[in-house]
TrEMBL record:
InterPro entries: DNA-bd_dom_put_sf, MerR-type_HTH_dom, MerR_fam. The keyword Kinase does not apply. GO terms for molecular function: DNA binding; DNA-binding transcription factor activity. This is MerR family transcriptional regulator. Pfam families: MerR_1 (PF13411). PROSITE patterns: HTH_MERR_1, HTH_MERR_2. The keyword 4Fe-4S does not apply. CDD domains: HTH_YyaN. Keywords: DNA-binding. It comes from Lentzea aerocolonigenes. Residues 1-71 form the HTH merR-type domain.
Length: 125
């Protein structure tokens, strides 16, 4: 199955401009073209876009994503470096999750505190 750029954008959750940008910077391979010269994305293309989107969502810098994409084209001999990139990024993601968890605990504490303040105000009214 193949998808137009609009369909690929819709399925990936990325804008058409973002798809073109990712192609221009080498993060995404140029898709095949149909007989009219329009981009035609494959299921494999969409799978790669889903992976790249997750990397971006988790805060991986574009330069690291580009390095990963370039290594991917060089085949299995680069598996070690690709794994290293992902392990490093996973460590960063875990650290961010821990930091966010601490922030969430502070928010929960403050919300509970203000709930008590509200109850006390209602009791004295």
């Amino acid at each position: 199955m193949s998808y137009s750029i609009a369909q690929a954008a819709q399925r990936s959750g990325l804008s058409i401009d973002t798809l073109r940008y990712y192609e221009r910077i080498g993060l995404v391979d140029p898709p095949a073209r149909d007989s009219g010269g329009r981009r035609s994305y494959s299921e494999e293309d969409l799978g790669w876009l889903a992976f790249v989107t997750r990397l971006r969502t988790t805060g991986m810098p574009i330069r690291m994503m580009r390095e990963f994409a370039q290594l991917r084209h060089r085949g299995d001999l680069t598996a070690g470096r690709r794994k290293e990139i992902l392990v490093e990024h996973r460590n960063d993601v875990r650290a961010r999750i821990a930091e966010l968890q601490t922030c969430l605990e502070v928010l929960d504490y403050k919300i509970d505190h203000y709930a008590v303040v509200e109850r006390d105000l209602e009791a004295t009214a």
